[in-house]
Amino acid sequence: MRYWKGSIALSATRDYPLLRQVLHSGFITHSQLFEFLRLDYCASSRNAFSNRVLRLVEHGLLTRHELPFINREIVYSVSETGASELAGKGEYHASSVEHLKLGSGQSRLHHSLELNEIHLALKRTGTLVYWTPEMEIRSRNDLTTAGYWKYYDAVVVVRLAGQDCRFALEYERTPKAARQYLSVRKRIEQETSITHFLYLVPNYDLLWFVADKLSECKRPVHFGLLKDFLQLTLALPVRRNGSPVSMTLTSVLTHGQAVQKTGSLWENIAV
After folding, report:
1. Nearest 5°: phi and psi at 168?
2. Is the CB of residue 258 less than 8 Å from the CB of residue 250?
3. HEC assignment per residue over the chain
C-alpha cells in the first residue's frame, strides 16, 4: 500500500497505545510514557520508542512542552489532531483537549505528572486490574445514567487475595476552598457504586486539613501520604475519617481484621 508524501501510517500495536496513554494521562513526561508502554509490553527499545514519539510530534498528533523545570524532562499532551484521531477509535471525550492547554497556571500539569507516578507505582505491583482515568469517568457521568456522583481522579481495581477490590482515588495536591468540601462530602455520601475512597496528599498539613473537612462524612474515607504510597503502595498505612486507628490499605480493601498501629506516621495528625 502506498501513502501520500508527508502522511503517517499509525500502528495499532505501537502508535495507538502510545496516543491513548498520553490522552488518559493528560500530561506525561518522556520517561513516564516509556515506562507505561514497557509495562504494557508495547515498547522495549528506548531508542525505537523515542523515534516513534518524535514521529508523532512531527506529524502534529502529540504536543511537546519544553518547560523550565529543574530535573524535568520534555512533557507531552495530545494535540487536537491526535484527539480527533482517537475519537474515531472510540476514545472517551477525546474530541476535547481544552483542559490540556497550559494557560497561565501549571497546577493541572503538576497534578497529572504526580498522578502518573501513583498509577505507575500500582502497575509495578502486578495487582492492578484496571485504572479508569478521569476522562472516562467524565464521559460516563456526562453521557450516561450509570455514572458516578463525582469526577474522581481515577477509579481503581486491584486484585488482592483472589478478589477484585475497587476504590475511588483522589490526589489532593492543593487545598480547595473549605466550602467546596461540603459538596464533596455530599457526593461521596450519595455514591452507590463505590465502597472505598482514598485521598492521597503530599504533606501532613494538607492531610490534616482535608481529613478535618471530611471528618463528618457518613461514608468511610481513608487518607494517606503520597510519598508513603509511592514507597509502600498497597501496604500504605491509612486512617479513616473520624478514627484514631491506622490500617494498611490492603486491610481496608479486603475488610481485614488486623489493625496496625503506626504512631510515628500519625502522631502529629489529629482528626
Report:
1. -90, 135
2. no
3. CCCCCCCCCCCCCCHHHHHHHHHHHCCEEHHHHHHHHHHCCCCCCHHHHHHHHHHHHHCCCEEEECCCCCCCCCEEEECHHHHHHHHCCCCCCCCCCHHHCCCCCCHHHHHHHHHHHHHHHHHHHCCEEEEEEHHHHHHHHHHCCCCCCCCCCEEEEEEECCEEEEEEEEECCCCCCCCHHHHHHHHHHHCCCCCEEEEEECCHHHHHHHHHHCCCCCCCEEEEEHHHHHHHHHHCEEEECCCCCEEEHHHHHCCCCCCCCCHHHHCCCCC
pLDDT at 107: 83
pLDDT digits (tens, 9 = 90+) for 202-239: 999 999 999 999 999 999 999 999 999 999 999 999 99
For 92, residues 6+ apart whose C-beta sits below 8 A from its C-beta are 135, 136, 138, 139, 140
Partners of 68 in the β-ladder: none
Instruction: Map out the domains of the chain with their CATH numbers.
Output: 8-104 (1.10.10.10), 107-262 (no CATH)
Cell of 36: 507505561
pLDDT digits (tens, 9 = 90+) for 29-45: 999 999 999 999 999 99
What pLDDT, in 10s, does the model give residues 94-144?
Answer: 445 555 555 545 788 999 999 999 999 999 999 999 999 999 999 899 888
